[in-house]
Amino acid sequence: MVTGELDCVAEDLKAVEQVLAHQALSDLPLVHDVCDHVRRAGGKRLRPALVLLFARALGCHTDEPVWAAAAVEMVHAATLMHDDVVDLADSRRGQQTAVSLWGPCPAVMGGNILLAKSFGSLVDRGQIDVLQLLSATALTMCRGEILQNANCGSIGLARATYLEIIRSKTAEFLSACCRIGAMLANAKALEAPAANYGLELGLAFQIIDDLLDYVGEPAVTGKPVGGDLREGKVTLPLIVALETAPAADVAELKRLATRGEHLTPDEFRRVLGLLQACGAIDSARCIANEHARNAARQLDDMPPSAHRDALLALASKLVYRQS
Fold first, then answer.
1. 214 CB contacts (<8 Å, ≥6 apart)?
2. What is the pTM of this model?
3. Measuring CA to CA, how many Å separate 268 from each of 148, 227, 229?
4. Which of 126, 139, 243, 266 is the most exposed place for a label (fewest CB within 10 A)?
């Protein structure tokens, strides 16, 4: 994430951390340990930052955006905990996952508790419209995950289906975060542009995330390359290659892509070489860049401010992120 550009909401983000720490408290030590572990693992905090940037850019000066930002981060943390259980993941961001430390039941229940606390905090603050949007978005995210799971191992995955998956499981959440910021500022005329910014940013974000699974540095990303391919997840770089590579290379890619968890490091390097040879890596980055430019265009009608500048910086630099 572009951290330097977030100085304008640095104090707000500190306040969000305080809310998250308070929400992790419980009279049951195990509950506190699980929930606080996820909080301390940190992360990009992109979603709360988007809530705050739009709310402040559009003139909201109360502390309501802080509470909404904390709520969306709790939803995000809950989805990660549940994902780790489904994937039996041992690590995330270079740290052990809750499921690897405490097992599936505490990890699932910890995620459920965070969801309940997130929605409860919005009710307590009277942010019912935010709650309605966030709950609807959570359903969309679940749909995206189910669609991805149903297509796991589908080497012939259509580009349109891939885009539907990443829109549902990633982009719609970022879109909701941006819309929430506009809602809290009572900027009804700019709710749609804010939501569109988040949607385009989310598409770019996920495409780059999928790209980094091929070309990222494990020491920076916190995860080994080739994870998606070994799990049977077909993403944009492979889709582009299967659309554009010579027939012989397509046949080899299909053979290697079906190796799953048995794919060796040498075989992965061969896959990467084939993707680079047909320009699929560059094409995927160009597609992400186009979505990022589309995001930036949504800010044209926003008044000038440091917060708007930060949103522009996020869009312009996102495609060059390394983690």
1. 225, 226, 229, 237, 271, 272, 275, 281
2. 0.94
3. 22, 10, 9
4. 266
